[in-house]
Known about the structure:
Blueprint: H1 3-27, H2 35-138
Helix pairs in contact: 1-2
Keywords: Actin-binding, Repeat
InterPro entries: Spectrin/alpha-actinin, Spectrin_repeat
GO molecular function: actin binding
Amino acid sequence: ASKEEHQFNRDLEDEILWVKERMPMAVSTDHGKDLPTVQLLIKKNQTLQKEIQGHQPRIKDILGRWQGLACSGLEAELQGRVETLEEIWRELQDQVDQRRGRLEKAQMAQQFYFDAAEAEAWMGEQELHMMSEEKAKVGLPT
């Protein structure tokens, strides 16, 4: 095989590995246990999305180079691995988008719980304040 074919082979393997290394973050079901955790996970997912977007040209380059090599007779040997790269690349993009949606829902839920807890605490404070005012009106010692 030519130097170009060997380089393509290495690049293809590198890209498959790159995608596989990021897949666990994209398919993670950890959606956080509280608002700060969810917000941190959203930031991490946004970073992953940017990393994927930034990596898109490398994937396109590999697939473009494949078109040239396929014409040189290597098609049968590498076709399956190129298809694997295309498939897992799409899967990574889909999974990271789905995770974004799940994290947004988790953030909304955690924001609701946070707001409800704050409202409950405020009402408790108001109740204590009103009770002390009531005691003062009745003339009871506070």
